[in-house]
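note to self — DONT lose this again. spent like an hour looking for the file last time. sequence + predicted structure for the chain T wanted, 346 res
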Amino acid sequence: MEATASKNFIDLFAGIGGFRQGLEGNGFSCVFSADNHPHAIKAYAANYGEDPSCDISTLNPASLPDFDIACGGFPCQPFSKAGKGEGFKDQTRGTLFFNLAQILEEKKPEAFIFENVKNIFTHDSGNTIKTIISTLESLGYNVSTAVLNARDFGVPQSRERVFFVGNRAGVDFDFTTLQRTRVESMIDYLDEDKGQFEWLDEAEYTLLPESDRKLQKTGLIFAGYRNKAGRVAGVNPDNLHHSRNHKQPNRIYDARGTHPTFSAQEKSGRYFILHEGRVRRLTIEECYRFMGFPEDFLRIGPKGEDYARIGNSVCVPIITEIGRQLKTTVFTQKGTHDNSSSVLAS
């Protein structure tokens, strides 16, 4: 094996640059970025000094600079349980994967890293994932997939996502060799300035007895709930204090465990934790920390948009570790595997 020169990447569906944070940390250089959300564009420009304004659905792949890695989390809402589940039938977001494929077909980068929701594996009885993988393989890529949880990579958030890593060198990317650091508790990641916290009044919530706060396999500890309307359909009247009987924004989790997945739909930042006997809302700083962003990351605009951006981002430490593995495996192989055949319409 022989080391290669520094590699370049493009940051597609860039958001606030979660992929960029992880890849630049490995010495890779960004040569193009793209997003079409107004707030994400402003946040990206503030942090990286460039304007990523671009609609990928109308982008001409031939206009892109040469690059070695394509990365991006193509829109997950069409495949998510939280969305309508229309998949490729969603003509606005569901077909954007094929725009990624057209970029790969035109530019033939050495590798790619894509991310999406776990539900994409079972969407449309498995047909969606088959289409995605077969399309990527038809373009000459060796494709590896895995479901990775953010809490296994140094942050206190139980967040499962599917990662696709492909390369033209014919190398099987081994996700099992990624270095993992499992986090069991939020406590070491919390702010210390109690003056800035938004505490709930005790009359606003109900806590479960200590004996009923069970550590779940996900690392979560359901501790109680805000006294808001719960679910009605399918609720067992003998088990009203079960977490599933309460909508996610009303649930309270013990800081001795991890936090559930942040959502792009949660612009109100209704993430409540029990810590040192009191219930409060997570700060926006803590939310960014729970996703692995650096302390000096600039946030701009309305706080609600900040919550949406972090819920729509990718866990930075996971990308950092995947990038490290790309350097030590795929990019130390001699030669590349070139397959210019295509099944995509021009």
